[in-house]
Amino acid sequence: MLPELNEILPEIKETTRVRTRRGYHYYFSLNGDYVKSTSNLFGRNLELKSNGNYVVAPPSIIKAYRYVYEVPLSEILPIPRILIKKNNPISLIKYKKDKTFKIPKYHGQKVDCIRQILSRELEEGERNNSLFILYNLLQQNKNTDEYSKKLVIKKNGSLSNPLTGVNLKKVYRKAYNYGCSRIRDNLAYIKCEACGRRFKDGKLKDSNILIKNIRILPELSNAEAKIALMLGIVFDGENPSINKIVLKAKMDYRTVGKVINNLKKRGIINKSLYNR
Hints:
Distance between the termini: 48 Å
Strand content: 5-15%
Structural class: mainly alpha
């Protein structure tokens, strides 16, 4: 059932309802009124059957499926007045709520990917990943679990095509520690240029692997330099596994493992980091 239909026809929640193989039939009594049938009710692919038409009714069985009443015929309501007018030109678009979303306060204002997710009109193929990452990033940045869920629910509610309650609950899975590279891999629209968490205005932080070891970099082999640059830029502030480095660098696993060990021996990276 379309969410907008609840707003225009709130009666459908109470009137006689039949589950079909592909959805629902909602019944209203005409009480002598005339209603014109249409297959494009409210400008959508919704059928309205009226005088002279018929539908499959309980207890009919079609292709082994039995039609049954979920709300009995005794609960049928009068036809809503909005459906009585001939050639009703009304469109669901007219009834769409103004869902302007004002970004709320949250901890981690300098983590710009949070702001980018909150400010974006998420498309159907990016809703799940975006809301899941948003929820985890909010928690990573010291927002409570309760408040993180509240913001995600509010953001979902602002979308023109929000996730259902069941799918939204899947967003609150086990928390993950999302780093910049993983966020970029999952959300193609994220731009890191404005983020205060990474190197701002093109300047690397003092804790960055490249800054700390700048004097040694010219002494590295091509493979070592490539991995060091990747750790300092692509994985800045993260602790990726060797498998993840292999995928990004497009290098042989044994070669990457050997390079990592060499960088550890040189003291360029901590011996406890970048394990398998």
